[in-house]
Amino acid sequence: MDQTVVANEIKRSDLLEMYYYLRLTRSVEDRITALYRQGRIVGGVYTSHGMEAIAVGYASALKPDDVIAPFHRDMGAFLIRGFSPGEIFAQYLGKQGGPTKGKDGNVHMGDLKRGMIGFVSHLADNMPVAAGAALAFKIRGESRVAFAGTGDGGTSRGDFHEAMNFAAVRRLPVVFFCTNNQYAYSTPLRYQMAITDVVERAKAYGMPGEIVDGNDVTAVYLASKRAVAKARVGEGPTFLEFKTMRMHGHSEHDAAKYVPRELLEEWKTKDPILRAERLVTQLGYGDESYFHEVGERVKKEVDAGTEFAEQSPLPEGRETLVGVFATEDEVQP
Amino acid sequence: MTTATLAQDVTYVEAISQALDEEMSRDERVFLMGEDIGAYGGAFKVTEGFLKKFGEWRVLDTPISESGFVGAAIGAAMMGLRPVVEMQFADFISCAFDQITEVAAKNHYRWGAAVPMVIRAPFGGGVHGGPFHSECPEGWFFHSPGLKIVAPSTPYDAKGLLKAAIRDPNPVLYFEHKFLYRRIKATLPQEDFIVPLGKADVKRSGRDISIITYGAMVHLALEAAELLSKEGIDLEVVDLRTLIPLDKETIYASVRKTSKAILLHEDNKTGGIGAEISALLAEECFDCLDGPILRIAPPDTPVPFSTPLEEFFLPKVSDIVAGAKKLAAY
Predict the structure, then answer these.
(1) What is the model's pTM?
(2) Of A32, A103, A132, A262, which is least surrounded by CB within 10 A?
């Protein structure tokens, strides 16, 4: 984003907070990757490396009582919603201290109290769910918004289209996004759809859409704010296409040899943290020593979180049997 | 019979309408979604007049989009509403299979989010519906932990179970039998009542053979029981009413008393609910069995359309009579 626009439209404290969350996201995920490589984390590890600006940007644009149905590379949204690094590491390690107490792994976390809808591996499944959350807000006359997304591959699924259609027909207060990181596992966009821009899909549903630079946290933040503001006042859903690049494999076991190296080199220069630092410097909000300070703070939190997760006990085998059904007192009042 | 009592004579389908009406009046969180349920009142007129009474945001006509609106119901339920979704025909529930089994059924177990919602599914044959309007898809969901499943056989149970399902904090699949809609009537209590989920009902007490069934087949079993009683065979008819959670206590108590069991259902035989109950009886009641466990169920084919084919497909009273006689010989 142009620095004048940012200076006029984003508060200094908000920008610096987003910078902090970009750094925290990367450090948390770097630690997760390290734990995975040490063989401590079993199962899949999907990171947002190089795409942190998306979740940090949109989650910063929401109010606390709005709900998020995240994409599976949206660690920043969890952190902004108050999931501590300790809870997150415990989740990845399958410990009791994680939000799912070992029932599910990695980014499959959720907590309605913190407005986070648990991710479902079947991509786009949570898009109709988010439309339904928005329907509840509309029925009750609340000014809350649901924010939900999937990847470029996920937009090929029927649930994506059913959700877009239903939300548009009923003008629901929901914002849908697509993290277009150009690859769905190994499948490039050209084998996923016959269009270049995912945003084209919105037209068919009579829904406004916008292409956003997904590596610029300020662009994501401002576009999300605009879309959310419209939804909040009853002007219906918006579709945002966040253009970015997946810098790692689909998960940590995948070397992503199918991605041309030049493409990765090109996108390395667009790294969202470097770009945020450039902007913060240009605006005079911070310098190298400030960035270093944030790095130290984040490292401390990540170390403390790792310690918490290591101390957290593993669940007992028989806890498998707990929680298939809800009891009356658990239902949201 | 006085006029007042006659006014209380309600059909199975009216009992369902009454349950919805009363729950929507009692609890403003309850709302409906489905295809053609608004101005048209639903394919079977269950929600006739509801749009006018409750308004378009509590009686939502949806696009033809079963996965989409079941997903939306899940979202609304998690936000504190109590959606009741109508499948126009139970057959179409396959379009929403993923939302039901992966999202609704697993959310609470995975991350603690309760999903209090009901999916009403008009199911079953005998109405010349053919392969896409006659199915009994309950078996698919019987195998998915996290769902409750009910299938009433009488107006009383239809009303009481639907009210209990709406008040339950879990996703409940409510299979209502189309064949019964306007064929049976009952006098229902005027006051509010529920039939608790998870409780089977012995619809006819007998000493010789337990016939364990649900839905429209309950009536077939009762008919067969009357015929067999003339021949000195005394059938006990256990109406499961709820398939999940299964009332094992009532099933076992009945079989321990009669020592013989027939499982009867309209869903395909292989891998059906009868197969599961047979296995349970073999595990838990083996010592009291005096004969083989029999299953009476349709062949493993889609539900055919043409009258002689559908008649062949569906279990008949004569099948039950023959099965009971075979078992009585042990």
Answers:
(1) 0.97
(2) A262
